Amino acid sequence: MSENKIEHSRSLRSARWFRKDDLPGFVHRSTLAAAGWSREDLMERPVVGILNTWSDINPCNLNLRDLAEEVKTGILEAGGIPLEAPLMSISENIIKPTSFPFRNLLAMEAEESIRAYPFDAVVLLGGCDKTQPALLMGAASAGVPCLFMASGPATPRSSTGGDLANATGVWRLVDELRAGELSEGDFAAFERSVMGTAGHCAEMGTASSMAVICEALGLSLPGSSLVPAVDRRRTRFARELGRRSVRMAAEGSPRPNEILDERAFDNAITLLCAVGGSTNVIIHLLALAGRVGVPLTLERFDEIARRVPLIANVQPAGEHLTERLMTAGGVPALLKTLKPLLHLDARTVDGRTIGEVIATAEVIDEDVIRPLDKPVKPGGTLVVVKGNLAPDGAVMKTCAADPKLFSHRGPAVVFEDVQTIADRIDDPELGIDENSVLILRNAGPVGAAMPEWGMLPLPRHLMERGVRDMLRISDARMSGTAYGAAVLHVSPEAAIGGPLALVQDGDIIELDVAERRLQLCVEPEELERRRQAWQPPLSRHVRGYRNLYSQHIEQAHRGCDFDFLRGANEETLPEGLFDGWVGGW
Ligand SMILES: CC[C@@](C)(O)[C@@H](O)C(=O)O
């Protein structure tokens, strides 16, 4: 190995572990001798950490073990030392009660792992929804150069023919089942076939949205994010990523805050709107911006969304799966189409600007990546609404909702928790009709750690009559794969006394998307009376992580990070001889 030396112009971060002729240096080098590394290797080569969220229990991330091997190959080829470290794997589909609180836990684990170990750069491997933002948030705060690679979309097999996506397909078929249009047998066949490969949801759910957003932010290799998990072309990207990481490790640049500036966030939001991406990404981008000191607000999402049409014809807002988006040209082609709306001088980890990346991109299929003047849907694919029901804002993915509900007035039917919905949604006694506004509360960050409950089910009797959308309002999140007129992330949430807590059955609610307004039509005096009578729910979490969570979690309009995690401190290693290990010659 040692003849394959790479030039680096600066003192490496890892030198503080390995280049000292003292007892700590001896201990660090001799420890890694057990992993096959010589004194010369450790003294001369840049070290790249591979933070891997692979796990058997998380099939979205199942291929990350193989991809990590490919990244290692690239790192070795370029003369670096690859050191892989497993981190918590968060599987949205399996983890209970919801994956969301663990995003911040993994972010802390990633940040502290990067800081505590001798990494000169890190490769972040994520897949299922929360692993992606968590790794980015941790790496952004740790400040060491990083590159991201997602596991890639799965390749779902449809038992019913057509492009049936992993989760959007589930929601559609559940609707059909409830409406009596699909047999139990056909539904069971779907269960057996839908998750046949590794990889995350193959529509523009949260995982695919986060993956393409990483490319737009400049943190992933251009063109890499939509290659399916089982496609061997992902291998090539993994090796290239490994090679590039060594260069970044040697140069100590670019650091996350050199990539993640206001231009990068604007570009990412532009792409999010153009692909009809997940509302969850809004929360993740707000949290990430908080880590690097970019003053991003919900209003910025609305401002950008107004001018960006839906150009990606991909589910849940369009027709196809993400594989078609890749063969149509992928993210570089999407960005090329969006060129007049982007900051072209934003930097990327591959060393080029976004403008340079898209110079060679090409749209191959204009049905899948539409031109700006022939979009799938015009601008305003997601909106931020405010009013006395959501003083700090709420969001709605309008491109996946029935426009008939964009200007709606109807009586509230309030559910205190999700179990009551499950028990009572079909109960005719509730008198729900298609004009009713279904409300779920106590599902916000403090109330229930914000599960993906926002697409409330519709009553069976209405579904049987062909009703497929109704206005639903909650302080919960919604799966990126879901659809419907769901007003989400209402802030402040009910559990801390937000106005959602004061709504009563029969109150009139008014949504006006054009005006971006969400109003509870109740007199201020009456609301004040209800506020005086309101009692906060007792916290169920008296110890451990969930207790820490409910005490420090911020509201949705600020990204649900912990208040003490905002910002970054790039290096906290003590100066001097005894870095972390006491001893000397
Ligand atoms: C069920 C679908 C998931 C797991 O992808 C979801 O978290 C999403 O937001 O897309």
Automatic annotation (TrEMBL):
Residues 367-560 form the Dihydroxy-acid/6-phosphogluconate dehydratase C-terminal domain. The keyword Iron applies. One of its GO terms (molecular function) is iron-sulfur cluster binding. It is an enzyme of class 4 (lyase). Belongs to the IlvD/Edd family. The lineage of its organism: Bacteria, Pseudomonadati, Pseudomonadota, Gammaproteobacteria, Oceanospirillales. It comes from Halomonas heilongjiangensis. Keywords: Iron, Iron-sulfur, Lyase, Metal-binding. Pfam families: ILV_EDD_C, ILVD_EDD_N. The keyword Nuclease does not apply. Its EC number is 4.2.1.9. Residues 45-356 form the Dihydroxy-acid/6-phosphogluconate dehydratase N-terminal domain. This is Dihydroxy-acid dehydratase.
